[in-house]
Amino acid sequence: MDSAMITKLTPVQCARTPRFSTGSGWCVRDMALGADGSVALSGWQEETRRTFIDLIFIDPDCTNTCKIIFSKEFEKSPNSRTRCVSYISSGQIVTCCDDTIELINYNQQSTILSHTFSGRAFSMAVSEEGDQHIFVGLYRSNKVIVFSSSGLTELKTITLTGLQNGGYVYELGVMGAAHTLCVRIAVYKASVYNINGDVQTELTAMNKTQARSIAVSSELMMVLWSDCTLITAHHIPSIIEGGRHSSLADRDGGRHIVACFKIDESWKIRIKNNRLITVHGITGEVKEYGKEDVFSLPTLLAALSSTINETEVTKLANYFKITSDQSITNIRDLVQHLTDAGSITPQNIVHLISACRDLDLRDAAQILSSYQSKQKHNVPHGLLYSEKELRKKFLALEEENKRNAVLSEELHKVSDDLRQSQNDHRQAQMKLAEESKALAEVMEQLKRIGGEREKETQQTAGSSTEDRQDEHTVVKDLSLAAAYGRLRVKVADDLTLDDSLRLAMLLNLPRAHVDMLRRVSFIETPGTHLLDMFMEQDIINMFDVTNLQKGLLHIGLMKTNTLLLVPYQKDVDRDKYERNKTDELLDWPDPDNIATRPTTPQSYIQVDTEEGIVDDHTTTVPGDHATTETGDRLETPHHQHNPYIEHVIGQEGGTINIAGTSLVVPPGALEDNQVIGVEVIRDTDMYLPGNDDRSRITPLIKLHPDDCKLSVPVCVTIPHSAVIPEPDQHAVTTYTGHKNTDTDKVTWEEGKLTSTLTSKTVSIYTNHLSYLLVNLVSNETEQKHIIRVVPLVEGISSPKDDVVMSVFLCKDTEEDYNLLLEDHRTKVRLGNYVTYTLVRSAAASPLELRVRSEDDAYSLIGETLTKFDIEHVCRASRVQYDFQLKRNRDITVNIPIIDVKLTVQHSGQSATVTVLKTKATNLVVSAETSQQYLAQITEPGPYSALKKEVASRLDKDRCKKLAVCFELTPVERERVLEDGESGQLLMKILDERELIMPNKMIGLYEGLKAIHLDKVARLILSYMETSDEERKQEVAENANQGSAVVKDSVTPVHRDEELRDLLDEGFARVDAALALKLSSRQLGLARQILQLKYRHIDSVPSSPGYYLHSEEVLTSLGGFVNLEDTVAQIHMPSGALSEDRIISLGIVDAPNAEGPLAGRTPRLSPIIRCEPDGLELNKPCILRIPHCALVRNDQTEIDVYYGQTQNDRIGWNNVPSDANATMKSSHLEVVLKKLGLIGLHAADHPDMRKRLRVIPFISRMTDDTETLTVSVWFYNDEDTEHKILMHNEVSRSGRILLHHPESFTLERMKKSMYLYVRSTNLHCSLPEEERRIEINQDALWLQGRYRIDLHLRITDMTDEVGLDISSLYWWKRTDHFHFRINKKVKELRAESDSLDLFPVETSQHKDMVKSFCKLRLDLSRCITADTAEHLSRTMGLNKETTSEIKHSREPAILLLDTLIDSSLISMTHLSPLEKALVENSNKAAANLVQEFRKTNRTSYLWNI
């Protein structure tokens, strides 16, 4: 090879891995390059035969240093030298050694998949284009196995032809989407094969030099030869096309060489993204060579010098018309001359490529094209055409332009003809509308008459005179129908938008109808819509238009009434008018007070002045968006609102959706009901992390409340804008922001969260509610944004006014669209919006908005083309563009037409054209009508009522605390405290500063909870729950505007009777009135609403929170109270009670409920509450309590303790000696003289043992579940603990039972006890630390329940969950228990979907609710205000609540509701109420409670 062809390269970076710096005997076997710039090395250790994988980043700032991002050593294997490594995607690598291939997630430091195959791996490569497959070459074999990258499934085996003399695949590379195999073979050559194994070409060096290493990039294969310093780059397609064997020894064989380099001594080479990386196998030195050096112009000239001979150089010189006096003898001189002349540059050689193609120098053209594709400033493919090809294309374009010119002329002629006939068309359209309406009314009347005649055919025929009269009546009705149709068209044409709005509000049309009128249609006028609505609401009909007459007189349209409606109504038959008369909605106005005004737009009064003739009104532009005098359009600022939603979520979890973003709260994440909010922030002044705005692919997400910690991670799924067909090829960076309340700044943390990227969304898992942001690692990826183009217009006061239009570009979500309409509610909508798709790239051109006025009556002021920065449009929540149409006074038309065409276009994409065409009268809205409309939509509603209610319950001290919670300024705090109505002023300030809003109450809820106003906070929860339903109903109504809106009744019917019925059934007056309002006075629906409201009376536990509960009415004869299916029981002997009493028995299971001497003695039995609390018995009763002890009866002393609840905790006192306990085999028998909270203490005996049960549960599974939580519970072996645990895990938390419980015996010992967990399925993996877990024996001994959580990761959702869970006796090596679990994933998902967290309401439950409502009504008649006051004190209510109850209009009802809300009583727990009534000597009320309990007996499992 000619030495002139060889270019010497110098490394720009060099580093050595720590493994080679600190130890000896290490060797590098394989190397791979990642898309993120990392380098993967694999190799072995000579002495130990252990293999390794290191992932490193070379530090560009420090020589010989690198950053280790992953390192792993593998156990010794028989042939461990052959470990290979390659990249699969961001975060994943694949490695093979011997007969095993593994997929590793190096971010999580774990093995995802493993597969064993037949044979011994010797080389490996991964395809980067097309389907991503893994190719593994076998040792001493001509076979290559192809695996899928997702499941490591064997797809096919390729047999390479032509391998002889023991040749096999030393090294492997895959090129292009066709998966061309570039192979280094152990017989001194590098070969190229197709996917079928057929040889395409072979490369050999002189003197049979061996190919040391190969690297593949695009269409090039680079070969490192056996001297370890020489690299040649070959253009493979040109070699295959020539069909020749290539050698460096012959001159012809070198014609395909693109470049030839000399490098430092190396063993392996790899190239990716023009980065050439080499490694030395012994020293471990990794070197990187610069992109500019590898594919530079000198390198190109060296390669061309052996490809283009002197004759070809002469042809090229003649092609470029270089004179003979120029000394051009070789390709170097030619390139230098072209560079000096400016024909080519080192980055752009397209002219030279075209010349080679025109002269049929194919090899040179291929080399030049390959060089051009590697340059940083790449040239579009279209510029690489030859001169001949460009000339042909130019002639074709000229012909097309001529055809387009002819078509353009024809189009202009058609346009002129259309404009000339426009006036005629408008007049004909009016006439056609009249006749169409008339015909429609006639057809409707004919259908009605035909139906009546069909019924009459079955009756006896009448006289001929009657028949003639009927025929006359039919003809008369048809004539009236036609007249009615024409009347509607003429009246509608007289009504402007202002008239239509005033009539709609005057006749009390629903708000949805009024809003629809403000959307100007291009087909029908607002007046037509209005009259259609009047007919739907039965305000007018064909025989009675008096309501319309009255409305026209009220708004001053006397001429329309006189000329059109009065003559029509006179022609209506009087009898038919009486039979079809509509409800009278308005009174006839006083004739003296009717303000007459013109009916047609062109007849506005004009006044003569000294300056000439002017209109009698002032031309103004309503709204707050001003335009400049020169007519420039500005992007006017607006008050920013972000899509926001909040819901009340409890322990059962839930889902929140807003603007495409979804928050999934799994069961168990929250301990109690909590207000959770999601805010989607499009644009903000806040500092956001990341290198470039273009890398930001999601909006900023704010989860409320700030820094709320969750027990289980929630999943936030956010739609992103990146165009990524293959998500696994891209990496994202997640950021978490936490706000510092002192500095009001947000601190960002990078990469702390787990995320999953799909082609459309990114899912983030977090345990904290905070700010969330996602950036794409690469900022060069295209992004797609869909926007809505929404045209709005300011109302005008006269058709002669100028018109100001606004075009808004907002995100394509209903939330952003509705916020836009809410912010600009005074504007009129011009029809519907249109959508447009933006493609955002690194070099995106501006978005163009072109405006053109098509009618001569209005002219556009200023420029017709406006450009928006694409970055701003994509980042902002909305962009506004205002323009003005100036009324042309020189053109006089009866009704001016506004005809505007909007065109939106970006980066040569197809344009979206919107035509805005309407009559100017459709935009006329007076100031009076606007004020009426605003008053209607801002009238007080539930939000105002809630603010008023909260304000009434806030004194100055609580206002002061709330002001601190909301961080009000000192001036604002002082104003609140000095004001006489502190609560009202505080609510006003919070509302004005938008710290609270109708759909954003989380701050107020958290503040009320912080200052311990829990009862007022419950009002917020109730408001939010009802608001959710109202919002859904409003969305449904808005979606059906004008088509399926439910007709409101005008006349109330039997309101007093409906309310009286509900009061008789026992519902409170306030609740009954609200339910009737919500149900539109439908009695059945109102009753269901009230029953839903009172459902919580049986779902709130009594403090301190017991779950299993039973009540019975016992007499002096005695009796039993049992807990269903357990041994727990109270036996009341005869004579123990002096009178009938409600006796209650319950198991206490609150989280903070601890037994006596907790933490020092074993927990053997539950805590029992017997009520009435403190009741002294005439004779001792016997209480049975289950236990889990194994000990002889005479060996254990049992102490009995009474408990008192103090600050939600229980304090214990030893009982007198008359209370004693005896231990039986399955229960304890306690003799009691007084009822109360009972706890037992058993001495810790050396021979004592506990019976325990263990049971596994698994969390609910959804479609996007990747990690499941398996909870292994240990608990006391007795039925009450089992019932409560099953209730908590299945009914409340929604977990799935994996296996029936197993029992074992626990001895009091000091040795360790371990839980062993093993996954029996390759697609299920556990963290290393969870495979052997030490069990806390003290917790098992001293507590009643103990849990261990396992985190199971599933990689294949179509497989099964396989677990082996066991625990052993340490000295016997036998099992305590052993669970072998095999569950199909689809079965678990089906169980999750069918899981019902809310029990079905039975008929018995409904009867109990109805009976309890009756009890409330009866008690309200027996309990006076004074009695209610005494009862509230007895039940422990505070002074403020007691005073409120005493002064209430219905003190008994308020008392009962307060006791229920405070969890002191419920429908199944009335013993405390009966006790208080007995102590207050209200025997009649106590008897009512006892009678209710006798009728509604219950042994009940409580639901929180």
* Global Rg: 43 Å
Provide the low-confidence segments as ranges: 244-255, 376-384, 460-465, 598-640, 1037-1055, 1094-1106, 1396-1403, 1499-1504
Strand content: 25-35%
- Distance linking N and C termini: 86 Å
- The helix fraction, in percent, is 25-40%
Derived from helix and strand composition plus strand pairing, the structural class reads: alpha+beta
pLDDT averaged residue by residue: 76
Overview of the molecule:
There is one protein chain. Strands 25, 39, 40, 41, 42, 44 and 46 form a seven-stranded mixed beta sheet that branches. This protein has a seven-stranded antiparallel beta sheet with strand order 57-56-60-53-52-49-71. Strands 55, 61, 62, 63, 64, 66 and 68 form a seven-stranded antiparallel beta sheet that branches. Helix content is 30%, strand content 31%. With 1504 residues, the protein is of the alpha+beta class. The chain contains 38 helices and 71 strands. Helix 10 (422-456) runs antiparallel to helix 11 (464-494) and helix 23 (970-978) runs antiparallel to helix 24 (982-992). The model is unreliable at 244-255, 376-384, 460-465, 598-640, 1037-1055, 1094-1106, 1396-1403 and 1499-1504 (pLDDT under 50).
Outline the fold blueprint.
Blueprint: E1 7-8, E2 11-16, H1 18-22, E3 26-33, E4 39-45, E5 51-58, E6 66-74, E7 84-89, E8 92-105, E9 110-126, E10 133-138, E11 143-148, E12 154-159, E13 169-175, E14 180-185, E15 189-193, E16 199-204, E17 211-217, E18 220-225, E19 230-235, H2 236-242, E20 246-247, E21 257-262, E22 268-272, E23 275-279, E24 285-289, H3 291-294, H4 297-304, H5 310-319, H6 331-341, H7 350-358, H8 362-373, H9 387-420, H10 422-456, H11 464-494, H12 497-506, H13 511-517, E25 519-520, H14 526-536, H15 546-554, H16 558-570, H17 574-579, E26 606-609, E27 612-615, E28 644-649, E29 654-658, E30 661-665, E31 674-681, E32 700-704, E33 709-719, E34 732-740, E35 745-750, E36 754-757, E37 761-768, E38 771-776, E39 783-793, E40 803-811, H18 814-823, E41 828-830, E42 834-840, E43 847-853, E44 858-860, E45 865-868, H19 870-875, E46 878-887, E47 897-906, E48 912-919, H20 927-937, H21 942-952, H22 956-965, H23 970-978, H24 982-992, H25 1002-1010, H26 1014-1039, H27 1055-1064, H28 1069-1078, H29 1083-1093, E49 1106-1114, E50 1119-1122, E51 1129-1132, ...
Parallel strand pairs: 1-21, 16-20, 25-41
Antiparallel strand pairs: 2-24, 3-4, 4-5, 5-6, 7-8, 8-9, 9-10, 10-11, 11-12, 13-14, 14-15, 15-16, 17-18, 18-19, 19-21, 22-23, 23-24, 26-27, 28-31, 29-30, 30-33, 31-32, 32-38, 33-37, 34-35, 34-38, 36-37, 39-40, 39-41, 39-42, 40-46, 43-45, 43-47, 44-46, 47-48, 49-52, 49-71, 50-51, 51-54, 52-53, ...
Helix pairs in contact: 7-8, 10-11, 11-14, 11-16, 12-20, 15-16, 21-24, 21-26, 22-23, 23-24, 25-26, 27-28, 28-29, 33-36, 33-38, 34-35, 34-36, 35-36, 37-38
